[in-house]
Amino acid sequence: MRSLILALMRKGILDIPLMFLLVRPLPEYGIVIATPAADAACSAAAAVLFVLFIVRHGQDTGNVRGNGVKRTV
Fold first, then answer.
1. What pTM value is reported for the model?
2. Which residues have CB under 8 Å from 30's CB, separation 6+?
């Protein structure tokens, strides 16, 4: 679900509106700059979601071996 939100945010919510917004102040480069700007914003949002995932699920990773079987000590 989060990946769908990030994909929609990249193309639908950020990219297309940024193209319209940046074409006025930067007529030659506004559309060209919009895609990397949307990618940077989505990368930042993905990094935040990744950190939240690690914080939430990170404490359990120490008890799992590489094959997915929990250790019993």
1. 0.67
2. 19, 21, 22, 23, 24
Write out pLDDT tens, residues 9-43: 888 889 999 999 999 999 889 999 999 999 999 99
Domain residue limits at 44: 2-59
Asked if residue 12 belongs to a domain, the reply is yes
35-67 pLDDT per residue, tens: 999 999 999 999 999 999 899 887 655 555 555
Rg over alpha carbons for the chain, rounded to the nearest Å, is 19
Looking at the structure of the chain, the number of domains it has is 1
Residues 6+ apart with CB under 8 A from 11: 38
